Amino acid sequence: MKAVIPCGGRGTRFLPVTKAIPKELLPVVDVPVICRIIDECVDSGMNEILIIISPSKQIIKDFFCDKTFLDELIDSGKPELARSLSDVMTKADLMFIVQDKPLGSAHAVSLAHSFTGNEPFYLALGDDLTVGDTPVGKQMTDAYSATGSTVIGVQRCDTDDIVKYGVADVKTTNGRLNLIRGIVEKPPLDALPSRLACYGRYILDDIYSFIDRIGKGKGGEYQLTDALELQCLEKNVYAYEFEGKRYDMGDKFGSLKAAIELSLCRKDFGDELKKYIIELASTLK
Ligand code: G1P
Predict the structure, then answer these.
(1) Which of 63, 113, 199, 238 is 20 to 30 A from 6 (CA-CA)?
(2) Could you list the residue range(s) of the whole structural domain that residue 275 is in?
(3) With 0-12 CB in 10 A as exposed, 13-18 as middle and 19+ as buried, what is 123?
(4) Do residues 158 and 273 share a domain?
(5) What atom of ligand 1 comes closest to residue 199's alpha carbon?
(6) C-beta 184 within 6 A of ligand 1
(7) How many domains does the chain have?
(8) Tens of pLDDT, residues 258-277
(9) Does the reported pTM lie above 0.85?
């Protein structure tokens, strides 16, 4: 299956740094978020990936395609460093397309049509990072194999943060798989259809015919949620409760949590970090 990573959002929650650096290139210590999302796709068996960027995010394409620094490392006799950088740049077969105008998530997805054809594809939003024992993309493709329908990745959210997400309106539940009536985009706390929040992972099947039929929605933009809502009216659509952790990398605290938790697993300084946190915690009131 092919994967699509839209990198459209302006990163206003992460200003001022996102004035200069797209949120998808912000690091989890030393690795840009988008590289970790590409890893997730590749580890899920997806090697062909389309990255949708806005005109102001050409730097994302340059990160993967500009070989100047790589050549400098080779020329200056640093083959090890060159290899590690080249591994990141060539991990997958990447294509790039520019969304000229900020017309919304559904418009961005519609630009992927010539890349995906009419096959189902994996959509991984560029500011949601997931980490699972089984990569989330693999869990999602397995759910798609079981249903043959569009699947939306969800997790239970018991905090007030749920109002920041699309929330599944569940019809029936079978284990981790929920047949849904629809998704309510950013509902108020007193009108939650469930506690299952959509966390930026989708297998989209036959979505283009629905995108073609929606008008401008919230913010005067074409919203993917509106196309999914329409699809729910006519076809089975499922919400799959994936296993693993999800970090909101468009959020400052979400990014910090990812940096700490993922660093604790690192071979190079995970143990040192653990010691440091324990020592630091003992000084906190
Ligand atoms: C988008 C989707 C929303 C989803 C969220 C996940 O919202 O519209 O349904 O829950 O991504 O991160 P946004 O982050 O663009 O506000």
Answers:
(1) 238
(2) 252-285
(3) buried
(4) no
(5) 6
(6) no
(7) 2
(8) 999 999 999 999 999 999 99
(9) yes
